[in-house]
Amino acid sequence: MAAKSGIKEIAGAAGQVLNLIAAPRYGGHLRPRQKTNVQTRNLINGEWRDAPSGATFEVTNPATDEVIAKVPNGGAEQAKAAIAAARAALPGWRALPAAERAAPLARLADLMLEQREALATLLTREQGKPLAESRGEISYAASFITWAAEEAKRVYGETVPSSRPDQRILVLRQPVGVVAAITPWNFPSAMITRKLGPALAAGCTMIVKPAEQTPLSAFAIAELALQAGIPAGVLNIITGDAAAIGQVIFADPTVRKVSFTGSTEVGQKLMVAAAANVVRLSLELGGHAPFLVFDDANIDAAVSGAIKSKFRNAGQTCVCPNRFFVQAGVYDEFVAKLAAALEPMQIGSGLDEGVSVGPLIDDAAVAKVRDHIDDARSHGATLRLGGKIFSPAAGLTERFCQPTVLENVNTSMKVSHEETFGPVAPVRRFTHEAEAIELANDSPYGLASYFYTRDNARLWRVAEALEYGIVGANDGGPSTAQAPFGGVKMSGIGREGGRYVMHEYLDIKYVSIGL
Ligand code: SIN
Hints:
6-stranded mixed β-sheet, 26% strand, disordered N terminus
């Protein structure tokens, strides 16, 4: 049963613990008061540690610029200590039966759901997304752990018939070893658990380097992991100098796997770095999702799918549609209904009731979104809705972008080629199915794609023709722990979720038995 939490927050001063106090109620019964200490220090070998130099950096609320906490500006030394802790913890953790690794993971998922309100509030404060979305993210984040804890018990090997009478062939799957996860700011909880769940469930130990903008959610999850009984050293968290930490991760042969979610540019650099020790990589990189609406679509469903996929997290997701292609017969209706549905959306601090569009994460994001809108307009695009980046109320930053609809879009514009990462929907008309497929596939990226049709034959044809790792066919929200998430082309390597995810953290060993 879902928990409701009464929360009290005591904001911490520099380097101190942030106390999130939640009193969950189950079926009307008040449980004993729970206190989650959200640390503002790095977790290494089960201990919370400051950077050896004492250096810190500030974590701020993008809606207000309020300083929420100061966290360690760790570097090479702490990265080495974290890897050493993960290495030392590996033999014990790997040796546990799968069910014994699954048990504390399941407890961690339960604790996250019990503390959902406190975790969601913290997430909104450091990331900006509306509280309703943050609550959804905490449930989504917990679901990756639950799924992986269950899958851990189903890591099957194989026996294969041999061509020799005196041989038996056995295929084992074993944990890859120490894993490093480098995670983004747009989903500060879910992108950690999407990696942590399967890595730990498979028997790996890990270090997590969360994004500088959103480390507090990582610390909160780590605190709950300790409470859930994950042993010291199995999970380590370090914040700080990304270049220095990255260098240590790729230089140390102990680290056998790196899982990264972020930009294609950084992913390419990691591929080069991984060559030194031939480290396995999972890369969930940029996208440039097309969204096709055919004449035979249910337009109301297409509009609500467009809003769900494009305007989630103010357009700051890798799976957000970036290019809308609408068939001529329904173009006017779709654009009119989309604009009408977007206009009333409330823009403001994610902590305020009723808000559905929060701030962009930082000034660099603002500059990029503004540049994309200006560039499109200077190349002939017209504004159907929005277009303004502004401060919606006193005390709020100027990082809020109106839901924006651009028409008369063509391929000369940046919005047609680059990920905008903002609430901007560029819309273009098409005539034939083949043209739509060609436009949709005309991208070096291949993460998510979407289309709407009520024609069953077209549904199969288009789903098969789209060169993307994820296809939402009449579905604006395909992401779920049970399904493989990941891209083709420059959108990455590997899959997270579904039964496929465990293989990202397992090596195959072939044992040939001579009789
Ligand atoms: C992402 O934007 O990287 C993740 C989005 C999702 O899981 O749906």
